[in-house]
Amino acid sequence: MWLAPGIGVKRWLVLFVFCTLVGAVGFLHFTWTGPLHFIATRWILYLNALTSPGVMPLHVTGMLVMGLSLVGAFFSIAMLNRSMLRGTGTAPETAVDVLYERRNLARGPRIVAVGGGTGLSNLLSGLRAHTGHTTAIVAVSDDGGSSGRLRESLDMIAPGDLTDCYAALSDSPVMARLLLHRFKRGDGIEGHTFGNLMLATLSEEEGGLAEAMKDIHEVLRIRGQVFPATTAPATLVARLSDGREIRGESKFAPGVGEARICEVRLDPPGLPALPDVLAAIQGAEQIVLGPGSLFTSIIPSLLVPDIARAIRNSAAPLIYVASLMTEPGETDGLSLEGHVTAITRHLGRTPDCVLVNSAVLPDAVIDHYAQAGAHVLTLEAAGRDLTSSAVVVPLIQPDQARHNPQALAQALMTLAPRRRLQN
């Protein structure tokens, strides 16, 4: 694998061999024409004496000695690298795999993924195998569960979806597992995940998560970047078709009733975005919305004015990963075209491409979700504009109404440009 294309090793091996041969010729010239001529003569005579007459030509003996010298030189370099790798805590046996992976990831496209919930973390777990330039922009308006309790206690942004995304992109399997560990007992910590508590601790230590972003990425060895849509706590407010307003996304599903959500907003409005988030959008080669809940995972990040403006001004293609099913209490009766219309209305830009699943869900899965009031989203009855911009590919996990991370990432790779490796 050391000689695999693009790993950046062959060029240096060729240079090493070339310089070694040139050095050998230079040394021979020095010894033969300089004051060490007698040593060169004795060396040649010594080699001649070791070679029986007629066994091999004298020049072949020289080539054999030169080859053995090169083998010894390569061996010494390999042992030197082995010692250095062990000194830095890297297993020499896996060094080539790590190097190969990172060199290929460096060629991957710059992708900005916007969303939240399990949908975004699933997408990130698939993208991590294709690119090292992923930036996740995560909605932080959740006010339920562990996140809601920490928000209320510490007046901080919701850490739950951030934790899931950090775990999905972490290069440390142990840390990824610990981040998602949920305490099942303990006064005050029962129900919290370790990752949520860690982010809460960093927020307290640094005076907010904005100051702790760099430390988090280094500590967790993130393959890419994960940022909150805003570092200021905010409440998601929904305006319903019957004129009512519901404050707090955890109250949407039980409070909507027979009405529908018309639009959502953040309170307070005009929240700031991190400069790193805006820089990532500006340099993006692809911007992906979802997968995830329309009004509680995707659109909340688009309600931050600076983020919405940056996406509208970006030349990168905007791709919406269509939801597989409607969500009871949130998108009841909303068609796939209605999902796209809602994004356009809140963002001010229509997605350039809609990624739609083509695999057929089993009847048992459809019936199970139908009992809860959820229905499959399809392109049927969609308008011409949506149909022409749709890319239809199999995207689900077997026998589940859930996106397959690998299939989703591969579909996005076919739509993204490939970058040349710069070094």
Automatic annotation (TrEMBL):
The keyword Membrane applies. Required for morphogenesis under gluconeogenic growth conditions. The chain crosses the membrane at residues 12-32, 58-80. It is found in: Cytoplasm. Keywords: Cytoplasm, Membrane, Transmembrane, Transmembrane helix. InterPro entries: CofD, CofD-like_dom_sf, Gluconeogen_factor. SUPFAM superfamilies: CofD-like. The keyword Membrane applies. Gene3D superfamilies: CofD-like domains. Belongs to the gluconeogenesis factor family. It comes from the Bacteria. CDD domains: YvcK_like (cd07187). Its main location: cytoplasm. It comes from Deinococcus aerophilus. This is Putative gluconeogenesis factor.
